């Protein structure tokens, strides 16, 4: 019996040993390994170990130190990063952005979680530092210091609406002048263009049998940011755009006045537009299923040359892109994708060298962002119109379906312009976007990020909750039947007033005035 | 008159009792039926009718898509089976070892240990301290240890087993002792065989808890090769569009919703089977010690 007891106890000790040994895989800070928290936008990570090893080998060969990639999917990124920061867990650098719920860059930097790299940045990452404009670095400053390396992408945002090329052709054939030139010169609004396109779609029996527009033909999902904030040029001063308190960045007078965006005529116009899309049956009610393939009118987040390529991959049809309003640089727009170095990191120089290498080395960037040739993608040949309207042959990469590494976050690395060309992307896409960034209108609030006091943060969060409910009702079409836009807007504003709206506006204004005085 | 009233009251009680239970059963069953229906619905049916209780247009395309990219699911099954199987064995054995001395009236520190155990039931250490302990001191991130060990020695199961062990006539143990039996041998050869219904109940509840545990994997497992079935499903539900994009033509026009539902069905089936086969033990074990004979 004693033998049996010994066997059982030995078995348990062995099991604990195995579990304990497995536990040894975690690691703390090491001076020759950079631990990099990588944001992934979904997709497959089956081949992540292979890519991790290849990236490590490549970096070791070029820079002489190791890199350990730690992938976190976007669905859990903010929660896990928040825990890692709050518990002082060791890592060297991570992706962070102004719109990352719960962990916005400016707030976390002001709380001291990231290293001040103002002096080290030009020394160890000179290519990045010299390539981006002073306005961009100004946006990344918190209390006058730089705490993150801005990832280069489209910074200057304006409303982008993509429409199925077949619909565009039909509208043009019907005599409607749907062109960027007409939009720019005659002030054609997004309301008119989307209405025209949807009117045609609803009336076309091949697309909409019996006049019923198919599910997902038009999705308003993120219209609050994509249309309202960008088209009307509001700057939310470094906080979530949904919180009350913005400036009219292009106003000719009183540009520094912090106002409640939900009390403006522009918001009323936006609400009327959204309601009309549901009331006209352009967005069918009651179905919960999202069918990407049905999309024909799409808000693109921002006007970005080349985004037709992603749309083609996702939806399976060609789109033409139109811009409304003119591009604008704000703190939020620039810092929407930043790589920051943890205050605990022992490897500031190595982190910056690695980011600089990712900025300058196409091979490394594409290995990390896209995976490997013949495993994740193949090079193929296609034909498309060039800037002069002449058809020409070009090489592009085509993803292999079911591949093992697709992280959909090429914008979360130092520059997305290193990415290999994809289908229907113009040859000069990077140049076009860099030009937009360079020539953009710079908001007077660029470089300011409002960090509220504790009491105002509570009011802000209470108001944010009411706004979230109202905007969801508006975009999903679940607002009370028969309610007018005016009633909807008034109802929301009454709730905001009882939740401390005035206190938020007053503190935001006071801090913004201080920022302007020091500028 | 009185007895007529009594019969009426009893009928009303039974009627509302049954009605309430039927409603509650429907409340639990309807989402499951909708899930099954959506997983077998064609893309067109989902577009035209949304989620329905009965399938309007049958299709097994969603399952074809899932099986075309079955590796993540198989790997997650593997992790869940190792954690559930291994965890349940270790957990129930150690729980029984804690419960055994507590069932003995002569154990000196019985009350003190019981109070200590009850305190853990009432107060939780909180998420941040637990996270620091697990990630920075124990270094259990991305390991099987974190998925198994923190759940060992749950007070509820200790009390359940202690109560059952206490009901075993002490004379059996005493006579064994007189024949020279050690305490450990008494535990293994007398207490354990006589307590099989209670151990089975604990095992099923512990196994269910391991299988359904996504919170631990969510917080402490970053490596997708270590995801269990629940974690995989959460990711699938949240990233259905991206997942479908990665499958490209394999997914064809199949709605991502039906693909997600098919995966959820495949993830739920094994533990549903185990639960249905062994659920009689749960009722039996839950009533352990309820009536003293």
Structure, described:
The complex is a heterodimer of chains A (519) and B (293). Chain A contains 20 helices and 15 strands. Chain A is α+β, with helices and mostly antiparallel strands and 519 residues long. In chain A, strand 4 (141-142) and strand 5 form a beta hairpin. The model of chain A is unreliable at 16-27 (pLDDT under 50). With 293 residues, chain B is an all-alpha fold. Chain B folds into two domains: 2-49; 61-286, Orthogonal Bundle (MetI-like fold), CATH 1.10.3720. Classes of the chains: A alpha+beta (519), B mainly alpha (293). Chains A and B meet through helix 1, strand 2 and helix 3 of A and helix 2, helix 4, helix 6, helix 7 and helix 10 of B.
Core attributes:
heterodimer, A: alpha+beta, D-Maltodextrin-Binding Protein, domain 2, 2 domains, four-stranded mixed beta sheet, B: 293 residues, MetI-like fold, 15 helices, 75% helix
Short description:
The complex is a heterodimer of chains A (519) and B (293). With 519 residues, chain A is α+β, with helices and mostly antiparallel strands.
Number of domains of chain B: 2
CATH superfamily of the largest domain in chain A: Periplasmic binding protein-like II
What percent of residues of chain A adopt helix (DSSP H or I)?
A: 40-55%
Overall geometry of chain B: globular
Q: Note the run of SSEs of chain B as H and E.
A: HHHHHHHHHHHHHHH
Strand content of chain A: 5-15%
Please state the structural category of chain B. mainly alpha
Question: What is the mean pLDDT of chain B?
Answer: 84
> How many angstroms does the end-to-end distance of chain B come to?
37 Å
Sheet with most strands: strand arrangement of chain A: 2-1-3-12-6
Q: What is the overall silhouette of chain A?
A: globular
- Specify the CATH class of the largest domain in chain A: Alpha Beta
Oligomer: heterodimer
Considering DSSP H and I runs of 4 or more, what fraction of the residues of chain B is helical?
A: over 70%
Main interface pair?
A-B, 57 and 59 residues
CATH level-1 class of the largest domain in chain B: Mainly Alpha
CATH-derived architecture of the largest domain in chain B: Orthogonal Bundle
CATH topology of the largest domain in chain B: MetI-like fold
């Amino acid at each position: 019996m004693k033998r049996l007891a010994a066997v059982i106890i030995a078995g348990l000790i062995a099991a604990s040993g195995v579990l304990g040994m497995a536990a040894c895989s975690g690691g703390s800070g090491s001076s020759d390994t950079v631990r990099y928290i990588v944001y992934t936008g979904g997709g497959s990570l089956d081949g992540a170990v292979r890519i991790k090893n290849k990236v490590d080998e490549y970096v070791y060969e070029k820079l002489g130190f190791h890199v350990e990639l730690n992938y976190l999917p976007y669905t859990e990124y903010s929660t896990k990063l928040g825990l890692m920061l709050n518990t002082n867990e060791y890592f060297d650098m991570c992706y962070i952005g102004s719109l990352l719920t719960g962990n916005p860059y400016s707030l976390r930097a002001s709380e001291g979680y990231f290293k001040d790299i103002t002096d080290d940045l030009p020394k160890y990452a000179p290519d990045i530092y010299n390539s981006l404009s002073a306005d961009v670095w100004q946006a990344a400053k918190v209390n006058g210091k730089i705490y993150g390396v801005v990832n280069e992408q489209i910074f200057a945002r304006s409303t982008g609406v993509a429409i199925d090329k077949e619909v565009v052709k039909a509208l043009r054939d019907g005599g409607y002048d749907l062109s960027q030139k007409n939009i720019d010169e005659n002030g054609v609004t997004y309301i008119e263009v989307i209405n025209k396109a949807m009117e045609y779609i609803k009336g076309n029996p091949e697309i909409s049998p019996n006049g019923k527009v198919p599910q997902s033909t038009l999705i308003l999902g993120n219209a609050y940011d994509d249309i309202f904030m960008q088209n009307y040029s509001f700057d939310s001063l470094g906080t979530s755009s949904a919180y009350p308190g913005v400036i009219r960045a292009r106003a000719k007078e009183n540009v520094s006045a912090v106002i409640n965006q939900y009390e403006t005529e522009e918001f009323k116009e936006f609400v009327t537009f959204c309601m009309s899309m549901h009331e006209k049956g352009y967005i069918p009610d009651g179905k919960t299923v999202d069918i990407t393939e049905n999309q024909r009118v799409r808000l693109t987040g921002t006007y970005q040359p080349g985004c037709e390529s992603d749309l083609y991959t996702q939806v399976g049809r060609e789109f033409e892109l139109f811009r409304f309003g003119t591009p604008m640089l704000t703190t939020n727009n620039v810092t929407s994708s930043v790589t920051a170095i943890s205050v605990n990191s022992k490897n500031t120089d190595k982190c910056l060298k690695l980011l600089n290498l990712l900025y300058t080395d196409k091979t490394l960037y594409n290995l990390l962002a896209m995976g490997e040739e013949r495993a994740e993608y193949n090079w193929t040949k296609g034909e498309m119109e060039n800037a002069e309207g002449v058809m020409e042959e070009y090489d592009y990469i085509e993803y292999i379906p079911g591949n093992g590494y697709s992280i959909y976050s090429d914008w979360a690395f130092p520059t997305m312009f290193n990415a290999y060309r994809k289908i229907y992307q113009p040859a000069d896409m990077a140049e076009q976007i860099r030009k937009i960034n360079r020539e953009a209108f710079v908001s007077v609030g660029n470089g300011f990020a409002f960090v509220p006091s504790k009491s105002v943060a509570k009011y802000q969060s209470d108001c944010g909750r009411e706004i979230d409910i109202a905007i969801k009702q508006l975009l999903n079409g679940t607002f009370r039947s028969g309610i007018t836009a005016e009633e909807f807007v008034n109802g929301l504003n009454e709730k905001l007033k009882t939740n401390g709206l005035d206190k938020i506006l007053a503190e935001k204004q006071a801090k913004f005035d201080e920022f302007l005085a020091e500028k | 008159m009185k007895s007529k009233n009594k019969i009426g009251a009893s009928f009303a009680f039974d009627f509302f009792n049954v009605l309430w239970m039927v409603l509650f059963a429907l409340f639990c069953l309807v989402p499951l039926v909708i899930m099954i229906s959506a997983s077998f619905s064609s893309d067109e049916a989902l577009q035209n009718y949304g989620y329905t209780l009965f399938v309007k247009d049958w299709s097994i395309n969603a399952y074809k898509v899932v099986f075309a990219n079955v590796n993540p699911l198989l790997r997650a099954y593997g992790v869940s089976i190792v954690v559930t199987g291994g965890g349940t064995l270790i957990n129930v054995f150690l729980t029984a070892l804690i419960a055994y001395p507590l069932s003995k009236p002569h154990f000196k520190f019985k009350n003190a240990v019981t109070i200590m155990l009850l305190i853990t039931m009432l107060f939780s250490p909180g998420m941040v301290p637990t996270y620091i302990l697990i990630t920075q001191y124990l270094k259990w991130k991305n390991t099987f240890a974190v998925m198994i060990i923190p759940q060992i020695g749950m007070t509820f199961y200790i009390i359940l087993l202690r109560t059952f062990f206490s009901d075993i006539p002490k004379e059996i143990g005493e006579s064994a002792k007189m024949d020279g039996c050690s305490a450990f041998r008494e535990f293994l050869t007398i207490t354990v065989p006589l307590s099989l219904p209670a151990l089975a109940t604990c095992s099923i509840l512990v196994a269910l808890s391991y299988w359904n545990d996504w919170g631990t994997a969510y917080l402490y497992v970053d490596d997708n090769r270590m995801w269990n079935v629940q974690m995989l499903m959460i990711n699938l539900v949240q990233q259905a569009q991206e997942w479908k994009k990665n499958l490209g033509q394999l997914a064809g026009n199949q709605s991502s919703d039906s693909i997600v539902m098919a995966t959820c069905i495949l993830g739920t089936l094994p533990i549903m089977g185990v639960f249905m086969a062994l659920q009689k033990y749960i009722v039996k074990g839950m009533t352990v010690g309820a009536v003293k004979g």
